[in-house]
Design a protein that fits this description.
78% of the residues lie in helices and 0% in strands. α6 packs antiparallel against α7. The longest helix has 35 residues. The two termini are 22 Å apart.
Length: 245
């Protein structure tokens, strides 16, 4: 199994363009921190939970798109031809898919962890004041639903047609920018801007950081949808394996 893991890791992640996209993601993170976050969200402090959540959500949009792109490569025609050869080895298809999901999911988690660390270091150096516990709540609420959506919906669409993953990427961008006022973006950034702005207009001045039940509900919905899609992919894989036998 370790040999299969190393093989899948090599063909999925150990490529120059993956390193390049990771560097671009971190550069984008620094750009957001130095141009938007440093000013604060809706007149809140740059190191508040509001500002960090907006920064994390904006940057997670990039890491989500990058991870979906990586996922699309394992459903490409070339990779499917390779999979036919590896099937001959008798290694269970379901286990191979699990290994691929661990690798791709691990990449996404690592990317977002680097984003988290970058934000904490930047704010700590510039302002000397950070709230890592609050930021961790932001990280969990944004990262975990995105992870499950990527693996669930991404795999489901990839099995149907790899091109659908690119369509889904377009939907993710559409929800992030065109439908920003509804705060239903998968990357979760818009909640922090919309809610903090609304509280500022209502109360005036600095608004204490809070997580609204509606935001928690939205994140839960994405978590459930992603989990259901992932379960469907797993069951479909089992059915395919039995039919092949």
């Amino acid at each position: 199994m370790s040999k299969i893991f190393k093989y899948e890791l090599k063909i999925i992640l150990l490529k120059p363009y993956i390193i390049a996209m990771t560097i671009i993601t971190l550069l984008y993170a620094y750009y957001i921190l130095s141009t938007e976050t440093i000013l604060g969200v809706s007149d809140t402090a740059p190191f508040s939970g509001w500002s960090f959540g907006k920064y994390l959500g904006d940057t997670t949009l990039i890491s989500t798109l990058v991870t979906l792109f990586i996922l699309s490569t394992i459903y490409s025609k070339r990779q499917k031809n390779v999979s036919i050869l590896t099937d001959v080895t008798g290694f269970p298809v379901r286990k191979r898919i699990m290994i691929r999901n661990i690798i791709i999911g691990g990449f996404f988690l690592l990317s977002n962890l680097l984003i988290y660390i970058t934000g904490c270091v930047f704010l700590g150096v510039i302002f000397g004041e950070i709230y890592p516990g609050v930021y961790l709540v932001d990280w969990l609420l944004i990262t975990i639903p995105c992870l499950v959506i990527i693996l669930g919906v991404g795999n489901l669409l990839g099995r149907i047609n790899p091109a659908l993953i690119y369509v889904f990427m377009g939907v993710v961008v559409l929800m992030a920018f065109v439908m920003s006022e509804y705060s239903i973006d998968i990357n979760g950034a818009n909640y922090y801007a919309v809610m903090s702005g609304a509280l500022e207009s209502l109360k005036g001045g600095e608004t204490p950081f809070t997580i609204a039940p509606t935001f928690l509900f939205t994140r839960l919905v994405y978590l459930i949808l992603g989990a259901a899609a992932l379960a469907g992919v797993t069951l479909k894989t089992g059915e395919k394996r039995r039919s092949d036998v």
